[in-house]
Give the backbone structure.
Amino acid sequence: MKILYICDCLPTFILNEIIGLKNLGHEMFILANDSSKLYKAVHGPIVMKNGLDKQFQRFFILKNRKQKYGTFFQKLIEDVFVHPQCAMKACWKLIKNYPNLKCGVIDYLDIRSFFDSGIDIVHSPFSTPRIIDKVYLLSKILNTPFTLCFRAHDLYYGNNMHEHIRRSAVIKEAAQIITIAGYNRDFIDNNLAIKKNIKIIHSAIDPEIFQAKGGARSPKSIIAVGRLDDQKGVIYLIKACHILHARGIEYECTIIGEGPEKEACQKLIAEQRIPNMHLIDYLPNEAVKEHLDRATVFVLPCEIASDGRRDILANALKEAMAMQLPVITSNMCGIEELVDDGVNGMLVPPQNPEALADAIEKIMNCPDLRRRMGEEGRKKIESCFNIKIEVKKLQEILTQAVHSTTMRSLP
């Protein structure tokens, strides 16, 4: 199949999905934003290494209104002669009922390069309202099926769900709706009244990449990895370490990541004089794995941010579990789908540094418990959050969507 991914950005887990489908023999096309520093530093090289740059189209970036409309009319006139049917369909959709005509002009410029690419299916791996508009417009122009995957930010951030409700008729036209967790499936059902079966394809990792080396681990090493913003709850880990220090418990805590909460974290550590705290900026994957390989326990005390943002089965937890680390995280947002309390990790109430300190102390004091939890965590990732397994499930869904559309179009 020729599969087009349309997305705002290309985080590693989506790139791994695209690479997985490519390795299964599909021809992959990408329409995405490549202007971020993270893309240029981390994700761009992955795109190049895997030969995805040849069929990568970046979003149009136009500086002003005059340039936007000037470029639009220029390209539209070209397309009237080269792709007349596509141009006419696009104009009809934009004039008739497009959610935002100003955005529609940009969407047209973004998608027009795929008019003659022979795309079989259009997929959104991260379905924000604006991405849904692009996907739907191209699907209607090409008369191809489209699928939508909802993850976290695209459901819970700001007024995204309000915008999805406005587009509920469009969303229901998707050949298949996918999400990454049962918690999301219930949320979508409750808010959008989707009657069709919503499939779960977990956001997954490659456990072969994340393997513990089997060496001795530090008995008192706490680690957290992730963006330093309020939804990660790292501030509560720092408070828990303050409690451990007051109890006279030895520890070393390493927090790897950057973000808007970094200054607040540094200020709390300095004001409370909390010892043995190490805040490290983003590191390459190999360096992060080395830190995970030496640690005793992985902690990610997530919470729901004031603007609705939240983690749904965070990939950082999966990577730590694959590395046979026991994990501690907040008991919220369906996390029990990933972390079985007392089996491969421990769940604590969100925003509760006292409970967090208790869980860390328990795991630090019980080597057998750490080993058993680590082994069970690895098993869980291999069986339920393995990229090779999940990509094959996705392939089946996309193939079925194309097949069903083809059958309906036959006389």
